[in-house]
DNA sequence: AAAAAAT
């Protein structure tokens, strides 16, 4: 059972409804609702009974959430007060609620949260706003799931669904009376950009408002320096400003985008992280950006040593002699402390410095003796050194950093710091939520065996549970970057005591889109803290972080564990594009568990649908699904209720599912590292696995080159639907 | 293109 389920079960009280009137018919004295022999026979209500009753008793009473005081309900009769019951039935209503994100209403009450007033405005950070809003993207989240249509438990919670058109206006509703009035509430740095918001239809008409038409243009306003700087002014939150209607209209000001943005103002030296980086739109986009070496150093990155342009060769510059030379240098560094599998033979956990309790736990988890990568890295981690660890997919990296990390926290703590609200002392970052949760499943029992606590801090899931766990006190945080940043900014996660930081899939965490958040997070951790970087494809791409944050790291990898010695059979099928669907159907129809990789979410979803239509139970995993569905769909494959999962690269790295016998790459990867990670989902723990990559003939050359980089020997052959090659592969 | 925060 996934541990986050454990937590859900052990943690906070669940919402209780129906706490009001006792039900009649209790059988014994002393129970509420006991009527003795006089108890009236239970009668089912007919439609007519119900209709007759609704006049004096609002039907929705019983569904009153317990936070809504009954006494404050409007006194108006039901007929005047539209209730939930008057809303159209589900099927009649328009398909709202596409996004299914936790709504405002699910979040902790405002008053429980710290003021947001003094944190930097959201617009200063590169945001996810750059990608199309969820509602603009095809959403697969709320469709009835393939094969699961019977259950409506998954539909969005009531409060998440819109269609509130006929509800009383916000201010008239009693339930929100106790929340601060708008002007008292903290600033919503995260609200949509002005230009995205609807017009201010409800503010006073212009003629009634003081006109600012004559006001000098923005640029003529008092120069910035004379005004309080947003950065260092003392908690002058937006709370202090006058209520909206009292404020001057901004209608005449230039549109926001024309005004000097926060991003333009000089960097705040006091608060280097979370604020100084350039706005995303100012940064070159991925497509346009020059090769790494040509990019100017990021403006906020002054501490980083200036990059030597030769040191980071362009990605595809294989023919350059200097590249080869440098790569050798880097590889040499990385291989400096290679150990062979033989070196680990006969080593015990105790030999490596792992204590008895943890050893018992590790043994119980099936890790009776250390794997080579664990034998290699654990002593150095325990000695407090920064470590780079490279072990092939499925070689046991999680325990390689997890076990010594827990051991170090133990030693460092001396059993003293178990106070509620203690700050976390270790942080493990992963690129996907599923991976973070999987790591927690491994690390949590190890930590618990010595009385330490972990929590996952990932997005896509309500914050509340995470925050209250943090408040209770946690020693190890296992997280994805976005939510960590969010909570840090909210002041609800303090990383200043983090003495060990692990980057799992470290090379990926250095890719565009991850690197800068990771840098900001690392900046929040304790100065001089230990850093551990692990990946199956650890390469020079991590040099940026290594130079910036690591001190004399020791580098470990395990020799003799290259792809050649792996248990994976690599096949490439040259196919006609139009045959792809058919061939995938034939391949996926086999007995064993099959994981199919598609390049886009839409294609992943389409393929899953297609397989279902062809009578092959399949499910999907990609970023267009809400988190509960992602978790569940992955669970469907793990549990074996479904044998085929179609995923984007969200599932490429780190995800462990037992006994995947076939990996199909419906779209070939662009990067050899992606190939290695995808194929690493099979052939785990010494088992046999097959990877089939479908390509068009036009891609043959690129594929050859990619396989060369991955150091993989694959059989490449043409194939068409119905060919025996395909059925042979499918049967495996 | 995907992923990582919501609204």
TrEMBL record:
<feature type="compositionally biased region" description="Basic and acidic residues">
    <location>
        <begin position="45"/>
        <end position="319"/>
    </location>
</feature>
<keyword id="KW-0378">Hydrolase</keyword>
<dbReference type="GO" id="GO:0003724">
    <property type="term" value="F:RNA helicase activity"/>
</dbReference>
<dbReference type="Pfam" id="PF00270">
    <property type="entry name" value="DEAD"/>
</dbReference>
<feature type="domain" description="Helicase C-terminal">
    <location>
        <begin position="567"/>
        <end position="732"/>
    </location>
</feature>
<feature type="domain" description="DEAD-box RNA helicase Q">
    <location>
        <begin position="347"/>
        <end position="375"/>
    </location>
</feature>
<dbReference type="GO" id="GO:0016787">
    <property type="term" value="F:hydrolase activity"/>
</dbReference>
<feature type="region of interest" description="Disordered">
    <location>
        <begin position="1"/>
        <end position="319"/>
    </location>
</feature>
<dbReference type="GO" id="GO:0003676">
    <property type="term" value="F:nucleic acid binding"/>
</dbReference>
<dbReference type="InterPro" id="IPR014014">
    <property type="entry name" value="RNA_helicase_DEAD_Q_motif"/>
</dbReference>
<dbReference type="InterPro" id="IPR001650">
    <property type="entry name" value="Helicase_C-like"/>
</dbReference>
<keyword id="KW-0347">Helicase</keyword>
<comment type="similarity">
    <text>Belongs to the DEAD box helicase family.</text>
</comment>
<protein>
    <submittedName>
        <fullName>DEAD/DEAH box helicase</fullName>
    </submittedName>
</protein>
<dbReference type="InterPro" id="IPR011545">
    <property type="entry name" value="DEAD/DEAH_box_helicase_dom"/>
</dbReference>
<dbReference type="InterPro" id="IPR044742">
    <property type="entry name" value="DEAD/DEAH_RhlB"/>
</dbReference>
<dbReference type="InterPro" id="IPR014001">
    <property type="entry name" value="Helicase_ATP-bd"/>
</dbReference>
<dbReference type="GO" id="GO:0005829">
    <property type="term" value="C:cytosol"/>
</dbReference>
<dbReference type="GO" id="GO:0005524">
    <property type="term" value="F:ATP binding"/>
</dbReference>
<feature type="short sequence motif" description="Q motif">
    <location>
        <begin position="347"/>
        <end position="375"/>
    </location>
</feature>
<keyword id="KW-0547">Nucleotide-binding</keyword>
<dbReference type="Pfam" id="PF00271">
    <property type="entry name" value="Helicase_C"/>
</dbReference>
<keyword id="KW-0067">ATP-binding</keyword>
<feature type="domain" description="Helicase ATP-binding">
    <location>
        <begin position="378"/>
        <end position="556"/>
    </location>
</feature>
<dbReference type="InterPro" id="IPR050079">
    <property type="entry name" value="DEAD_box_RNA_helicase"/>
</dbReference>
<feature type="compositionally biased region" description="Basic and acidic residues">
    <location>
        <begin position="26"/>
        <end position="35"/>
    </location>
</feature>
<dbReference type="InterPro" id="IPR027417">
    <property type="entry name" value="P-loop_NTPase"/>
</dbReference>
């Amino acid at each position: 059972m996934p541990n986050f389920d454990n937590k859900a079960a052990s943690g906070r009280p669940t919402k209780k409804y129906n706490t009001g009137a006792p039900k009649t018919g209790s059988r014994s004295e002393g129970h509420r609702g006991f009527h003795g022999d006089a108890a009236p026979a239970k009668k089912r209500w007919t439609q007519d009974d119900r209709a007759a009753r609704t006049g004096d008793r609002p039907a929705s009473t019983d569904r009153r959430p317990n936070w809504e005081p009954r006494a404050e309900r409007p006194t108006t009769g039901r007929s005047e007060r539209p209730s939930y019951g008057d809303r159209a039935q589900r099927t009649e209503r328009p398909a709202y609620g596409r996004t299914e994100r936790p709504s405002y209403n699910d979040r902790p009450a405002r008053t429980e949260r710290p003021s947001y007033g003094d944190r930097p405005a959201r617009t200063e950070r590169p945001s996810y706003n750059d990608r199309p809003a969820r509602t603009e993207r095809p959403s697969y989240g709320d469709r009835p799931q393939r094969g699961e249509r019977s259950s409506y438990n998954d539909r969005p919670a009531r409060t998440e669904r819109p269609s509130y058109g006929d509800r009383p206006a916000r201010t008239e509703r009693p339930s929100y009376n106790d929340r601060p009035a708008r002007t008292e509430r903290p600033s919503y740095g995260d609200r949509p950009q002005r230009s995205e918001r609807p017009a201010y239809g409800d503010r006073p008409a212009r003629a009634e408002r003081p006109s600012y038409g004559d006001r000098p243009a923005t640029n003529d306003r008092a120069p910035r320096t004379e005004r309080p700087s947003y950065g260092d002014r003392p908690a002058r939150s937006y709370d202090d400003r006058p209520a909206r209607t009292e404020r001057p209209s901004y209608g005449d000001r230039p549109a926001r985008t024309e005004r000097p943005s926060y991003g333009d103002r000089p960097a705040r030296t006091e608060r280097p992280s979370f604020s100084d980086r350039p706005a995303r739109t100012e940064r070159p986009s991925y497509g346009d950006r020059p090769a790494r070496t040509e990019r100017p150093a990021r403006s906020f990155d002054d501490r980083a040593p200036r990059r030597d342009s030769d040191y980071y060769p362009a990605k595809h510059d294989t023919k350059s002699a200097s590249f080869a030379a440098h790569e050798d240098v880097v590889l040499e560094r990385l291989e400096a402390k290679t150990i062979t599998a033989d070196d680990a033979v006969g080593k015990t956990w105790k030999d490596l410095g792992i204590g008895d309790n943890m050893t018992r736990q590790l043994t119980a988890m099936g890790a009776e003796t250390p794997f080579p990568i664990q034998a290699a890295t654990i002593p150095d981690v325990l000695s407090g050194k920064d470590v780079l660890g490279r072990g092939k997919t499925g070689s046991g990296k999680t325990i390689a950093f997890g076990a010594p990390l827990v051991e170090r926290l133990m030693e460092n703590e001396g059993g003293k710091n178990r106070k509620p609200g203690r700050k976390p002392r270790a942080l493990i970052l992963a690129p996907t939520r599923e991976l973070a949760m999987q790591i927690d499943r491994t690390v949590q029992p190890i930590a618990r065996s010595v009385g330490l606590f972990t929590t996952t801090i990932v997005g896509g899931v309500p914050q509340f549970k995470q925050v209250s766990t943090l408040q209770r006190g946690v020693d190890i945080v296992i997280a994805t970057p976005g939510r960590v940043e969010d909570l840090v900014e909210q002041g609800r996660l303090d990383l200043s005591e983090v003495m060990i930081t692990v980057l799992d899939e470290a090379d990926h965490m250095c890719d565009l889109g991850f690197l800068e958040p990771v840098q900001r997070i690392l900046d929040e951790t304790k100065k001089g803290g230990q850093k551990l970087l692990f990946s199956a494809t650890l390469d020079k791409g991590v040099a940026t972080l290594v130079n910036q944050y690591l001190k004399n790291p020791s580098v470990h990898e395990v020799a003799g564990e290259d792809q050649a010695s792996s248990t994976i059979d690599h096949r490439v099928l040259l196919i006609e594009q139009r045959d792809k669907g058919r061939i995938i159907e034939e391949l996926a129809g086999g007995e064993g568990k099959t994981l199919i990789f598609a390049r886009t979410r839409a294609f992943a979803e389409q393929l899953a649908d297609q397989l279902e239509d062809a009578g092959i139970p399949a499910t999907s995993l990609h970023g267009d699904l809400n988190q509960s569905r992602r978790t569940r769909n992955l669970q469907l494959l793990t549990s074996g209720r479904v044998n085929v999962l179609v995923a984007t690269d969200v599932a490429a790295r780190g995800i462990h599912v037992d006994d995947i016998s076939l990996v199909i790459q419906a779209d070939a990867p662009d990067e050899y590292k992606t190939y290695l990670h995808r194929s690493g989902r099979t052939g785990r723990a010494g088992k046999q696995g097959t990877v089939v990559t479908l390509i068009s003939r036009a891609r043959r050359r690129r594929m050859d080159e990619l396989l060369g980089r991955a150091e993989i020997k694959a059989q490449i052959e043409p194939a068409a639907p119905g060919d025996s090659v395909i059925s042979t592969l499918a049967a495996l």
